[in-house]
Structure formats: C-alpha cells, structure tokens
From TrEMBL:
Residues 381-401 are annotated as: Disordered. It is an enzyme of class 2 (transferase). This is Palmitoyltransferase. It comes from Tegillarca granosa (Malaysian cockle). Residues 168-292 form the Palmitoyltransferase DHHC domain.
Amino acid sequence: MGINSDIELSSWVMKHQSYVSVSTESSPSKFSETSVKIMTKKVRKWQVFPGKNRFCCNGRIMMARQTGIFYFTCTLIVVTSGLFFAFDCPYLALNVTPAIPAVGGALFIFVMSTLFRTSFSDPGVIPRATLDEANDIERQIEMPNNSPGTYRPPPRTKEVVIKGQVIKLKYCFTCKIFRPPRASHCSLCDNCVDRFDHHCPWVGNCVGRRNYRYFYLFILSLSVLCIYIFACVLTHLILRSQKDNFLHALRDSPASVIEAIVCFFSVWSIVGLAGFHSYLVASEQTTNEDIKGTFSAKRGQENFNPFSQGSILKNCLVVLCGPTPPSLIDRRGLVIPDTSQIHPGVEASTGKESNSVNVKHEYYGSTNVTKQTNNIGTDTVKDQSLLSGSNGTGPITKHDMISYQTPDGIITNRLPPINGKNPMWNVTLTQLSYHAGTNPSTNPN
C-alpha cells in the first residue's frame, strides 16, 4: 500500500478507535500499462549528456553551444566563393582557361567538407566517471593519507613514465577522473578532451585527437583557396584594365573588389595559422603543450617530447594518416532506465504496486504493514480477545500490528524514537500516528 492509503487507515482508526487487519495480497494495481510504457520510454544518451554541447540529427552531429562565429565562418567562405564563381570565373574561363572554375570548385568542396567534419564530430571527449568509479578514486586518494595525528590535503596528481619522461596526470574535479596524458578540460564545452589542442570558435567545436587532422587540412586548404581567389581576382582586374584603365575595370566588376579586400585581410592570419600548425604537426605537439612549454627545457633539466616519432616525416604520417580512434561516448546509445527510481511504488518486473512505503532503505529505513491471516476487519469493542497484546499483559496498540525495518535492515515492532536523530522517522510517525493515544482529538469513548 502507498502512503495515502496508510494515512486514510490512520484517520479511520483514530476516529472509530478500532483496528483492522489489512490484506496486502489482493490490492489491485493502481498503475495502468500506459504508466509502465512511460517509464520504459527510450532515451538516448545525447539527451542526458552532461557537457555543454549541442546535438543535432538524433545525436549524429555534436558541436559546442556557442556556434555564432561558426555560422559567420561559413557565411564568409560561401559568399566570397559565390561572388568568385558568379563574376570572375566566367570571364577567366573564356579568356584564360576553363580549368580555373574547376580547380576553384574542387578547393571549395574540400574546404567545406573538412570544416563540417571538424565541426560536427566528437573531438575526443573522455566520459565522466560514474558514481562508483568516482567513489573508488576518492578512496584511493584518501587511503595513503590516513596517518594519525596529521592531516594533509590528498594529492590530486599521479605520475607515469613514458619513454623515460615523467608525465603528471592531473585530477579533474568536474569529470572525477585522472586525465590521461595530453588531455585537458575545456571550460567552454565542460568536457575533458583527449589530446586537447584548443577550443576553436571559428569551427564551433573543440579540436582534439579525433578531429585535429581535419582541422589542419581545413586551415591548409582554406589558405590555398584564399590565395587562389586573390590571385584570380587580380588576374581578372589586370586583364580588364588592359582594354581600359584600371578604374573602369573596378567599376565594371565591383564584386572583384569585395573579394580582393576579404582575401587580402584574411590571408595573413589564415596562412600564419596554417604555418604554426604545420610546425606543431612536424614536432608532434599540440597548441596547449606549446603555449605552456610542456616539453621545453626547465632549469637546466633535459626535457623532451616522448610522443614524438623521431622524425618530421613520421610525425606527419602519424597525425595525418594514422587511424582515427573510436568515440568513447556512445551518443546514440540508449539510456537504461532504473524503474525502481522512476516510481518506487511500482515493481520494475511486474508493474504491480509494491507494499512498502516509498522511502529509501539505505537512508531512512522503511515501514511495512504486517500481513494478517484474517482479512476481515475486527472491531476492538466486540472482540475482547484483541484488547490484550501478544503477551496478554496489556491493551493492544497500533504499533503492535506494524513491523518496522530499521536503516540497518532489522525487522522489529518496537516503536522508533519520536525525537530521534533521523527526521524521516518523525515525518513517518506523524503521518501514520502509530500510537492511538498521541492524538489529543481522539475520543476514548
């Protein structure tokens, strides 16, 4: 029976000063099949993902929440390329070669494909620890710190040796894990990312182990496309100026002026970024490691990069041609519901209403009405045999008919202390009014 039925029973008892035996076997279920279906509704893991990410297409697309600059990037590339194909390519195809629009189209498709691959993929998010895993890690951290008499804050780092180089593993207080080497926590996405390079707002995502190669190919191809469009626009304007002066050429093709300005101010930063990441690829480093100076010499101590393959060619092959590791987060997987937590009054297997009060045993204990052999209500005035307790020494009270399960799991009919330390006992006693004499409004007659 639920709490509401117990309260109604208590109210009737206090009014009539009679005690009834309650059958717990034949009570019909109060929950329809629709309620059971709601509890077993399919929920994907991306719908309950704890990080600050945005998912589309049923979890197939994963991005950061701040996507405004990403849309600006797409608009800038598409508009500039569109002006180039609409106003410059027809003239150049007729007067120079038809290969110009073909090469430009191939570059545009490659740039957009690598951009979307970088932006829409999992960068290498490391799953957060479960509750049991987090508790186990906390026990491991606290265990060496149990020396009596002194207390020191537990260490939050571990050390591993890779190719003779000591690497520190830092503890993430958000994900409750010791981050693997080269991983870092992104404050914008609120995730630990494996081989974290940086968070790039221009692509709307973090850049990590699983999408770094596509990011590098994107900025490299974008640099080539920017230089290509700028060179073709200048060629177009020079050819037009040969037939007339340069100012008339600018007046006849205003779109070429816009393209030239956009490419001129963009090419410096894009080419510079591509050159910087080419250096990182050749030395097998990340932006995060290079800025922090992780593998630079410190105070005369020899320090080297243990992740380097020993040569520029091998480092480039590892980054650009190595296998892409699988995603560690099953975004489209199903969340297994805990039906006992969805509604504690319904059994998960049968969908029937359970007899226990909806209170967690591990925290508050539970209260169960004892099963009686006689299902017929008994009036205490007419049946004098019920006026004495089980030992025949005194009048029966309501708590003689109720058994209690203590937080330790012990079944007893001893009344819990009214002013005990556990506030949940007091709430339960107030609702059920275990002793008939505790209600001042009770009429003994």
